[in-house]
Amino acid sequence: MPGIAPQAVLLPLTADTDLPSSFLDDVISGLTSPQKSLSSKYFYDETGDRLFQRIMECEDYYLTRCEMEIFRDFTADLAVPLNIHQSAFDLIELGAGDGTKTRHLLEYLERQRADFRYLPVDISGHILEVLAQNLENTLPSVNVVPTQGDYFDALQRICETSERRKILLFLGSNIGNMTVEDCSTFCQQLSSMMNPGDMLVTGFDLKKDPKTVLRAYDDHEGLTREFNLNLLRRINEELNADFDLSCFEHYQTYDPGSGACRSYLISQCEQAVTIAGERILFRRHEPLFMEVSRKFSHADIEALAGESGFSQISEVCDRKGWFMNAVWLKNL
Ligand code: AVJ
After folding, report:
1. 63-73 vs 102-111: helix axis angle to the nearest 10?
2. In a designed cystine with 308, which of 159, 187, 209, 272 is the match (CB 3.0 to 4.6 A)?
């Protein structure tokens, strides 16, 4: 396996959970339901990855910069509640990506001579190779064990092979893309796989001036618009469909009460789209729901911890108070 640090051992790869057939099934089922929708988990093909990279760098999208500030400038605030000298532990990152934020924490743990392994988990084998290579070059003494695959499958395999205390990282406000129910189920499922004393660090985007939130998803450069339209292009390419991208317009909403920021593509005319032989009709101005990015209050976050079997032991925010990394301890 080229590009993997020598000390890294790749656990057996799981089956790819995103086979074209389930992609097609999900697309058809979303487009034939009364409220048409597509799943934002399909945004991230190669072009989608590149567009999201540009979104993270753009002026209007503040989330990444805020969380980076926490990891870079408040590393100790984040790390102290983790009790890093209590015992050897596995630091498991769900959806690690290229690990740019985590690097600050890893450097800190190294300096503190904590006894730990870093286990990044990602659906993308490619990004894990990039991550492992970067860490080998810059932090060669950290023991890195990448795992490719679905979060719960990967976590299951890690639990079967290690008895150590677990500290889980789930960053980037990825939790915001789940509905209220899915989010609750997800946290409970994580909790059920953890032991008392294990911890979970999650990144939450906080409720704030609604205009600031809306702007992040309706940016001046039109990147979010392109990001959404890219999924239609991907469906055309991979599922043999004929979406006319010029007949859909991006429409973003933010509801400051619930904290749901939603994106839609609005059909500009009455039209038919064919996908793998199936004809889908769109009315003029019919919305196609693409993604929810939920925003949380401090109280929302503590309540979520409580209902999922955790106690919140610490919260660290950026200077503007726009983003929070919450540290949860798995209850006895
Ligand atoms: C990667 C899920 C954190 O919801 O803020 C960015 C994805 N969508 N712009 C988010 C996204 C539109 C992003 N997350």
Report:
1. 10
2. 187
Ligand 1 pocket list (CB less than 6 A): 55, 63, 172-174, 176-177, 217, 224, 227, 291, 293
Q: State the pLDDT confidence band at 19, using cuts at 50, 70 and 90.
A: low
pLDDT at 98: 82
C-alpha–C-alpha distance, residues 62 and 7, integer Å: 36
User: CA 307, CA 62: separation in Å to the nearest integer?
Assistant: 29
Q: How many angstroms separate the alpha carbon of residue 292 from the centre of ligand 1?
A: 9
Distance of alpha carbon 89 from alpha carbon 87, whole angstroms = 6
Q: What is the dihedral of CA 49, 52, 56, 62, to 10 degrees?
A: -150
Residue type at position 226: E
Structure confidence by residue, pLDDT tens digits, 225-243:
999 999 999 999 999 999 9
Average pLDDT on 261-290 reads 97
For the record, the structure tokens of 237 come out as: 């390419």
Q: Binning pLDDT at 50, 70 and 90, where does residue 20 land?
A: low
Amino acid at 150: D
Find out whether 186 and 175 touch, Cβ atoms under 8 Å.
yes
CA distances from 182 to 189, 260, 294 (A): 10, 14, 12
Do residues 127 and 97 touch, judged by C-beta distance below 8 A? yes
Position of tokens 């540009």? Answer: 54
Percent of the chain with pLDDT over 90: 88
The residue to mutate among 65, 94, 208, 291, having the most atoms of ligand 1 within 8 angstroms of its beta carbon, is 291
Residue reference for tokens 């299951």: 156
Would you state the structure tokens that stand for residue 231, as one six-digit string? Answer: 């999924």
Task: Look at the pTM and tell me if it is higher than 0.85.
Answer: yes
Cα-to-centroid distance, 203 and ligand 1 (Å): 12
Tokens standing for residue 150: 């679905």
